[in-house]
């Protein structure tokens, strides 16, 4: 079961989750520094990313892990506030540039292609203080930061992700308040943040296109989180419609403007408008793009980057009481099938990824697809011999193989989440996604391969699964 020649096998990390060095060498505070230092049990056991995996000082150890796996690509993110401590180019932190230059140069020296994310949830606190993603001024701040990164690193980096999981960020941070700044705005904040995230991404894509592409010849996209969604009762028309609506609110909300026509899906606009009217709002709670903005947003991605972990069942849930919220606007509820195995929120449904890839192919004109994250957690303490987890990976690779061979999906890169056990946001260190175990009690933060790492290395060596599987 060989994958196409030149298929990219990667692993991924993100700055706040692995680097530590939260205030080292002139780094400015990011929103997760502030949020975790405030305590209040919003993160498991009030854990923080102050030290995390110590990758800021232990990059050489990470590189050994990358070489041990034989990765062809490595995805990591830049800490915006390590490079620009107050979020603006008013002060540039050379120590931050040096750190990322070393990572990029070491990867290239070892034949590993960097995939670099500009922003992975860790907004500089100085910009959050000015309204964060709820403020339109963030669009220009992000564009200037992106241009700074393109000009500093783009001579060597050819694959860029502007914003990680914009659809998760908008909901978790500005709708539900579970991510920093930690203030919920039900029914309004998520839409306002999403509107600015889409425009910021599009602006930075155009900056790359007009100022850097000719010389650097790279590719730019954003990554979107996608849960595959199935009707709870396949014979129920209302559940079928609800499942279609759910994917429009969840994935197409961002993907349709960027890949198709610069605007939100019709059903999303009509649902939110009609709910807003019933609730007595003078206009829809979903902001509108101007005709000019639609033109600017349309076609601003060079490949489709998607992050798949799990699948859910969807049921129609009428919003009788006119409650505020995204699920209420979509009139859906979601839940797992009780027969699915799970660790925490991840129910293991390998066939979901194939269905998702086929949906993206059919809906978005057969784009080049990168899976920029996919993985399975273990609860702490995690066994090093994680054969059960490896089985989930193996089944996933079988589904990817079918997607490529049978569905003719143009999948080119797969990134396992994650290279290392790390700080998993609200779950702290309790959820271990690493291919390498990290001992967070040991100041040296030793990295030890799980069985999954050794097995993944074999897959990479063979460019696929052994034929008899």
TrEMBL record:
Q: Which domain of life is it from?
A: Eukaryota
GO MF term list: beta-galactosidase activity; beta-glucosidase activity; galactosylceramidase activity; glucosylceramidase activity
EC code: 3.2.1.21, 3.2.1.45, 3.2.1.46
Q: What's its catalytic activity?
A: beta-D-galactosyl-(1<->1)-sphing-4-enine + H2O = sphing-4-enine + D-galactose; Hydrolysis of terminal, non-reducing beta-D-glucosyl residues with release of beta-D-glucose; beta-D-glucosyl-(1<->1)-N-octadecanoylsphing-4-enine + H2O = N-octadecanoylsphing-4-enine + D-glucose; a beta-D-glucosyl-(1<->1')-N-acylsphing-4-enine + H2O = an N-acylsphing-4-enine + D-glucose
Per UniProt, the keywords (alphabetical) are:
Glycosidase, Hydrolase
What SUPFAM superfamilies does the record point to?
(Trans)glycosidases
Q: What class of enzyme is it?
A: hydrolase
GO cellular component terms, semicolon-separated: cytosol; membrane
Q: Which family does it belong to?
A: Belongs to the glycosyl hydrolase 1 family. Klotho subfamily.
Q: What does the function comment of this entry state?
A: Neutral cytosolic beta-glycosidase with a broad substrate specificity that could play a role in the catabolism of glycosylceramides. Has a significant glucosylceramidase activity in vitro. However, that activity is relatively low and its significance in vivo is not clear. Hydrolyzes galactosylceramides/GalCers, glucosylsphingosines/GlcSphs and galactosylsphingosines/GalSphs. However, the in vivo relevance of these activities is unclear.
Q: Please state what the protein is called.
A: Cytosolic beta-glucosidase
Please name the taxonomic classification of the source. Answer: Eukaryota, Metazoa, Chordata, Craniata, Vertebrata
Gene designation per UniProt: LOC112624661
């Amino acid at each position: 079961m060989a994958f196409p020649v030149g298929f990219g096998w990667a692993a991924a990390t993100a700055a706040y989750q692995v680097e530590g060095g939260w205030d080292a060498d002139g780094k400015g505070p990011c929103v997760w520094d502030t949020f975790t230092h405030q305590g209040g049990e919003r993160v498991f056991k009030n854990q923080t990313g102050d030290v995390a995996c110590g990758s800021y000082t232990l990059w050489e150890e990470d590189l050994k892990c990358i070489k041990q796996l034989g990765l062809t690509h490595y995805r990591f993110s830049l800490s915006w506030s390590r490079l620009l401590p107050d979020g603006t180019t008013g002060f540039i932190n050379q120590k931050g540039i040096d750190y990322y230059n070393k990572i990029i140069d070491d990867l290239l020296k070892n034949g590993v292609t960097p995939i670099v994310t500009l922003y992975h949830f860790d907004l500089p606190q100085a910009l959050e203080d000015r309204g964060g993603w709820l403020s339109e001024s963030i669009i220009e701040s992000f564009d200037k930061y992106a241009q700074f990164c393109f000009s500093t690193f783009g001579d060597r980096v050819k694959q860029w992700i502007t914003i990680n999981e914009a659809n998760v960020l908008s909901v978790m941070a500005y709708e539900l308040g579970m991510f920093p700044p930690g203030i919920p705005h039900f029914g309004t904040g998520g839409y306002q943040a999403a509107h600015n995230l889409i425009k910021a991404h599009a602006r930075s894509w155009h900056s790359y296109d007009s100022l850097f592409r000719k010389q650097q010849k790279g590719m730019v996209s954003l990554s979107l989180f996608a849960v595959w969604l199935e009707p709870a009762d396949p014979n129920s028309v209302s559940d079928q419609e609800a499942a279609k609506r759910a994917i429009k609110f969840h994935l197409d909300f961002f993907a349709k403007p960027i890949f198709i026509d610069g605007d939100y899906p019709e059903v999303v606009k009509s649902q939110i408008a009609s709910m807003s009217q019933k609730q007595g709002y003078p206009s829809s709670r979903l902001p509108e793009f101007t005709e000019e903005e639609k033109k600017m947003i349309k076609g601003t991605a060079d490949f489709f980057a998607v992050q798949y972990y799990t699948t859910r069942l969807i049921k129609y849930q009428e919003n009788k009481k006119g409650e505020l919220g995204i699920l209420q606007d979509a009139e859906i509820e979601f839940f797992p099938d009780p027969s699915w195995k799970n660790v925490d929120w991840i129910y293991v449904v390998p066939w979901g990824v194939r269905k998702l890839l086929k949906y993206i192919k059919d809906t978005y004109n057969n784009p080049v697809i990168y899976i920029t994250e996919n993985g399975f957690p273990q609860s702490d303490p995690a066994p090093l011999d994680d054969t059960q987890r490896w089985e989930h990976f193996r089944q996933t690779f079988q589904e990817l193989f079918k997607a490529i061979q049978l569905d003719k999906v143009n999948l080119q890169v797969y990134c396992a989440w994650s290279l290392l056990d790390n700080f998993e946001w609200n779950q702290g260190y309790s959820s271990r996604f690493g291919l390498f175990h990290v001992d967070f009690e040991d100041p040296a933060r030793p990295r030890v391969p799980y069985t999954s790492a050794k097995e993944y290395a074999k897959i990479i060596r063979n460019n696929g699964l052994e034929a008899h599987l």
